[in-house]
Amino acid sequence: MNDIETGRETLRVGDGTEMAAYRARPKGAAKAPGLLLLQEAFGVNAWIRAVAERFAREGWSVLAPELFHRTAPGFEGSYGDFAAVQPHLQALTADGMAADLRAAHARLEQSGSAGDVCAVGFCMGGRAAFLADAVLPLKAAVSFYGAGIAPALLDRAPSLSGPILLIWGGRDKHIPPETTAAVSAALRAAGKSFAAAEFSDGDHGFFCDARPTYHAPSAVRAWALTLAFLKTRGG
User: Fold this and answer.
1) Number of domains in the chain
2) Measured CA distances, 151 to 76, 86, 147 (Å)
3) Which residues partner with 4 through β-bridges?
4) CB atoms within 10 A of CB 67
5) What's the CA gap between 18 and 26, in Å, rounded?
6) For residue 31, what are the CA distances in angstroms to 61, 140, 186, 219?
7) Helix, coil or strand: residue 95
8) What is the CATH number of the domain that holds 118?
9) pLDDT digits over 98-117, tens only?
């Protein structure tokens, strides 16, 4: 495990807006592989920051951009109050997220991760990770229960740059089997490199230990799978 350093940055987005981001990276490292860490709908909260630090201890230079910066800068929602999240979630657009992802990717490259950037995201961020792989030259991406990939982003499957790992929960009623199958079918039709893993005991959000749906055995296995997938990025 590496000693790490953390902090916050402000990024200029191509549409003229400013976006805050949380960063975590190995302490003193001049160069490290970059990782875009993409939030759940509850913001770049304490849990996302902890995940960023966890990846940093594995050797990654991590940047977690605040994707709600246009409607609620600094937003951190309560897991028990989804109604407060919805206006910001509904205000997101694919074009806006793509601009945010480009800005965060550029910052990682400037800080010593040029040519070696991946993305990992959860739920809303899982959709953003899929989009990032379509609009950025990523080495690899991991999408945890990416709500909204199908049908909205399936036409972007041919544009994916790096291999993608799709992680689903078998008990997730928000994302039915026909939806997960549609994502795999689109990637297969586009000839893209991908892996899909369903954790049969996992519900939506099973990786997040701050949520009531957390399932420790599935989370432990999904973490190991994620690290192994990212380690072989581009292979």
Assistant:
1) 1
2) 28, 19, 10
3) 26
4) 27
5) 26
6) 8, 18, 35, 29
7) helix
8) 3.40.50.1820
9) 999 999 999 999 999 999 99
